[in-house]
TrEMBL record:
It comes from the Bacteria. Residues 439-553 form the Glucose-methanol-choline oxidoreductase C-terminal domain. InterPro entries: FAD/NAD-bd_sf, GMC_OxRdtase_N, GMC_OxRtase_C. One of its GO terms (molecular function) is flavin adenine dinucleotide binding. Residues 161-180 are annotated as: Disordered. Keywords: FAD, Flavoprotein, Oxidoreductase. Gene3D superfamilies: FAD/NAD(P)-binding domain. Pfam families: GMC_oxred_C (PF05199), GMC_oxred_N (PF00732). It comes from Paenibacillus soyae. Residues 142-329 form the Glucose-methanol-choline oxidoreductase N-terminal domain. Belongs to the GMC oxidoreductase family. This is GMC family oxidoreductase.
Length: 571
């Protein structure tokens, strides 16, 4: 028999960036909020002097236990999906703060084109430019409408950067200056300018200087230690929910965090949510938390899975193309890159930060003519210096033996003579790429696992090859004596790490027939349920998603307060 607790104003499922932002905004406005987090408590002190690559990078200390819950994967509907038993293509975070604790901090804004991709593509190239089966959508919101929320997120996090010359208009400059420009970044800047491109310093959640945000949260500047990705920041210099928004919510006295609380169902009746049912994983006790408003802010797969298990919203059917929950799954094409080997120049690649880098957007979005190209969109190209930690970084030129004396000799020679330029390509939604519940495999509680059906398309292969060639051109202009770059993109495989930028499944739009939520992240089918995160992206852009997730969270918080006051679907 489940234990029923007293009702609260709002219950939040997952306390990461989106959940923390919404908790902060709602509690400051006087609402009582319960945050349910299935992982453990976290604090900055947990990471004092813990630069342990083996523990965090290789053994995935901050990721969820795949023996208790994982996903299943198949490349198409004709084969059986199998569970992901060890980490590879992407990493599933766990614990208070979510992926916002162990992210790199690269905080781009999406381009105006990203939010109106279908209509703007059709307007410029005609409807035949969009291939059959590609299900890209407009978001139901424009860049200009979302810009104030980007600004709010950047001020809260103290984003360090400089204006993107090819980006959307900004209402304010970044709150802190860009990070240091290293010698390799200066080389990239000079080379790209010679190629008539437009470099700019990467926007970083790693503080370039000491900063106090509008909520009064003070944080110290980045030390360039090179331990950002897969690590918590011991200095608090990298913006994360644990050192920014969660303390603000806690200070109000109206926010209650319950860790080790695994939400299994959203309870609903008559088109309204009544609360959630969760398991206290420390005791096994089943608990019901009633609430006036339910806000789902966990990771992409968890958002979709919870809605499907709760029978909220119409499940997507790939055969007919009808339904919305699980539709428009998209990933990211991180396969267009170039590695340059230098004979004379040496670099200090061990120092770095998660978002220490320099970028160009000349080949992103629709910033270049696609008339004679067999793909849409593009991607950001960047030279990043995230810290070349010793276990995972051992580059040698192609053609080198994989072991033995030659390998050892060249490993030592090129340890400080190698640079990499990476491209982060967009991912378009297709009718046959989707998320649903696996009919065979279950988690530790007996609930079905999330199943992914996905593979790279001709769109991705053409895009990856194009971006890799551009990266190679820049690297050669920088003076590398040998350049290796992608020549051909093979099938998607889930065993090699690429990106944790999974998107879609609960997509945003202007009408319920083709989307699950409106532009306040409010469900069409249950107006007191808000679903926030990258699950709302109708397709993925050529950037990291976190800045856009943060902006959407601030807009959702505004929508929740409006709903609390007036009720009904928001417009």
């Amino acid at each position: 028999m489940a234990k029923t607790l007293p009702k609260t104003d709002v219950v939040i499922v997952g306390v990461g960036w989106a959940g923390g932002i919404i908790a902060s905004e709602l509690t400051k406005s006087g609402l009582n909020v319960v945050g349910l987090e299935r992982g453990k408590e976290r604090k900055t002190e947990d990471y004092y002097m813990v630069h342990d690559e083996l523990r965090y990078s290789m053994r995935y200390e901050m990721m969820q236990d795949l023996s208790k819950e994982t996903i299943t994967f198949r490349s198409n509907e004709n084969i059986r999906a199998l569970p992901m038993r060890q980490y590879g293509s992407f990493l599933l975070g766990d614990g208070l703060g979510g992926s916002g604790v162990h992210w790199n901090g690269q905080t781009y804004r999406f381009l105006p084109y990203d939010f109106q991709m279908r209509s703007m593509t059709t307007e410029r190239y005609g409807k035949n430019k969009i291939p059959e089966g590609m299900t890209i959508r407009d978001w139901g919101i424009t860049y200009d409408e979302l810009e104030p929320y980007y600004d709010k997120f950047e001020k809260m996090a103290g984003i360090s950067g400089e204006e993107n010359p090819l980006g959307g208009k900004r209402s304010n400059p970044y709150p802190t200056p860009p990070m240091k420009k290293t010698p390799s970044m200066q080389m990239f800047a000079e080379a790209t300018k010679k190629l008539n491109l437009n470099p700019y310093m990467m926007p970083a959640a790693n503080l370039s200087e000491n900063y106090t945000n509008p909520d009064g949260v003070a944080r110290a500047a980045c030390q360039y230690c090179g331990y950002c990705e897969r690590y918590g920041c011991e200095y608090g210099a990298k913006a994360d929910p644990v050192v920014t928004v969660i303390p603000v919510a806690n200070k109000t006295g109206k926010f209650q965090i319950r860790t080790h609380s695994n939400v299994r169902r959203i309870l609903h009746k008559g088109g309204k949510a009544t609360g959630v049912m969760y398991i206290d994983v420390t005791t096994g006790e089943e608990i019901i938390q009633p609430a006036d408003i339910v806000v789902v802010t966990s990771y992409v797969f968890n958002n979709v899975r919870l809605l499907l298990m709760s029978e909220l919203g119409k499940p997507y059917d790939p055969a007919s193309g009808q339904g919305v929950i699980g539709a428009n799954y998209a990933y990211q094409v991180i396969k267009g890159s170039a590695v340059g080997f230098f004979e004379e120049k040496q670099f200090n690649n061990f120092a770095g930060a998660g978002s220490l880098g320099i970028s160009i957007d000349d080949y992103n979005g629709d910033n270049f003519d696609h008339s004679n190209l067999n793909f849409l969109h593009g991607g950001v190209i960047a030279l990043s210096q995230t810290g070349a930690r010793p276990i995972q970084n051992n580059p040698v030129p192609s053609g080198t033996a994989a072991w033995g004396a030659e390998f050892k000799k060249k490993s030592l020679h090129y340890a400080n003579r190698t640079l990499s330029i990476g491209a982060q390509g967009s991912s378009m939604a297709f009718k046959h790429h989707f998320l649903d519940l696996d009919p065979t495999y279950k988690d530790a509680f007996g609930d079905p696992l999330m199943r992914i059906t996905f593979d790279f398309e001709d769109q991705d292969r053409e895009l990856a090859k194009f971006l890799a060639e551009r990266c190679s051109e820049i690297m050669k202009e920088m003076g590398a004596s040998h350049v290796d770059y992608l020549k051909e993109l093979g099938p998607y495989e889930i065993m090699t790490y690429q990106s944790t930028h999974n998107t879609g499944g609960v997509i945003m739009g202007a009408e319920p027939g083709t989307s699950a939520i409106n532009n306040f992240s409010q469900m069409w089918d249950a107006d007191n349920v808000f679903v926030v995160g990258a699950s709302s992206f109708p397709q993925n852009a050529g950037y990291n998603p976190t800045g856009t997730v943060g902006a959407l969270a601030y807009r959702a918080a505004e929508g929740i307060l409006k709903y609390r006051e007036k009720g009904g679907l928001l417009v």
